[in-house]
């Protein structure tokens, strides 16, 4: 019995009699594998760039013969966009019976992690949703995996339909190193801005007027708190919500030009500027004074949103993507939305942008059909369909107007104001490929009082400098 | 006395086995392991080789890579976040390995006194359950327990300890131990099942002899149970320490490495660098270092426990 036990112990041990032999064998095997795979990663099929297609664009998919178009999107988490995508795909197939659309839909995070592998395969999807910024779209462009859509933009008039600010977010230089200039690599269906949701009933009960400017909002917080109500629902355990809190504040304290210069690396601005430090100081004091949900660093944004929709807080800072959930739980007429203005009468300034870009892969066999599809899902009819399902279309048709007094009407009005009135500032995590980590980590430390606003600014600037040096 | 008996057996076996070592290698034996080796090569050795290779390049995962030599490794040596990550792992080892083994041993000592435990298999199943449940489910449940308005704080407030309530996973001081305790909960069943099986293999006569000699529960545990479980403890230690070093899912779901970087562990850095930061070379370098560290620790555990003699 004892020997049995001993053997079972030996079983897990590496070892005994012929350990040396085994080490030699493993080393030999590893050496052999090296010999087999001795070319640099990333060369091979993906390394060779294809010449961009040229020549006249065929705008009629009906003439393309039998085509299967594979598209990868991330419109699953937003139920409105999911319905809209299904409906638009069906409509496209109905209009062009020779085209079959194969939809592959994944959550944002799953798409992000699998898209790289799919794109570098020999048989990638034809159309994909690429996330703007250096880590995703920039890397795809650099590797030659996306095809520029300039000529389609000319034919279909996307350049005229979209505000330059939105279109530029989908541009990259051909080497993938400079963002917002160069070729166009896709177009977006939806718009998004971050703002303040407020519970009308709670504010009314407390006798606090809904804020319009940033100063109104800052002044409302102590008033709400003094009456024994939690001012802002905020949960930051998944780290990203603090970007919205800091971003919205920073847009107002540092000003839109500074924010744009910082994120897009223009005019030599520094993250240690006075406006950004003021934003950091402000949100740190909000945390200290108990204006944010207690224990926010250990609470998910979902739970915080439940606090807000449960009527436990007066405000919630979130993006337009929260609209569907909020209006469903609180009732469309009981919630308001505001993008804060730096001063009374000024255009509201807030961070936001557009949904992921719909792009065409460079290995697609039917780029013209893919482009026609892109146009189909972003034309005015499509935008109406998107609005109808409760999402925010990038280009809301002039005729579309949700019922007055609903949160949808507020959101649409502010989107129109901000996107056409030059009030849009970029998300701060666009700054460098590592900025999301640096920013979110720093913000958790700042809000917990572990980092001074000045030290926080220095951390951001260090990340920025490292990126510039290595670029 | 029990110890003596075991040592004697051990020595006998060792001597009996000695001449065999000098025998010629039986090549036909390798034919039998060929299928296993083939599977191992395709699914383990080739990816491992690729990982080592990629770790020597700067690579964003898409564009052609550029040769980096040992630059990625040099960066790692200078990286304070990675260093703190390995430090955090040591804290997790306490939660994943030390505590469950101590708990399980205590439980075994107590259960050993029960002459015949009714429904032992039911206990085993219940205690083993955390091992079977998908780790994401485990992590999500614990997020709810640790939440600011969660079960734990609710319970503490109920018994008049409102002042110690806190966002356990969001507090810089408690987040890491909180993750470690989830590991304790998960691993305790594994240890207990291993030890119960081990105790069943200890000859009853040893216990009877110990009792005849007047040994109490403590003496009996240290003289009979503990030496008898040496092998199982080594196995449990190996498995749980590896689990602690490999932890990714619990951290990913509960804290994303936060607050700040207070729960960042090497496996999380691998994911973050490969998929979020497009630093695939650096990610692979972390992977290689982590693999090497785990290998060394496993060897040390086996050496110390006498398994590799």
From TrEMBL, chain A:
Keyword set includes Signal: yes
One Pfam family of this chain: SBP_bac_8
SUPFAM superfamilies hit by this protein: Periplasmic binding protein-like II
Signal peptide location: 1-40
The keyword Plastid is assigned to this record: no
Region of interest (Disordered), ranges: 44-63
Sorted UniProt keywords: Signal
Protein name: Sugar ABC transporter substrate-binding protein
Organism expressing this protein natively: Actinocatenispora rupis
Automatic annotation (TrEMBL), chain B:
Pfam families: BPD_transp_1
Family per similarity comment: Belongs to the binding-protein-dependent transport system permease family.
Domain of life: Bacteria
Membrane topology: Multi-pass membrane protein
Ranges that cross the membrane: 30-49, 86-110, 122-145, 175-200, 221-245, 283-301
InterPro entries reported for this sequence: ABC_transporter_permease, MetI-like, MetI-like_sf
Protein name: ABC transporter permease
Keywords, sorted A to Z: Cell membrane, Membrane, Transmembrane, Transmembrane helix, Transport
PANTHER family: ABC TRANSPORTER PERMEASE PROTEIN, DIACETYLCHITOBIOSE UPTAKE SYSTEM PERMEASE PROTEIN NGCF
Localization in the cell: Cell membrane
Domain ABC transmembrane type-1 span(s) in chain numbering: 86-301
GO terms for biological process, alphabetical: transmembrane transport
GO cellular component: plasma membrane
Location, primary (coarse class): membrane
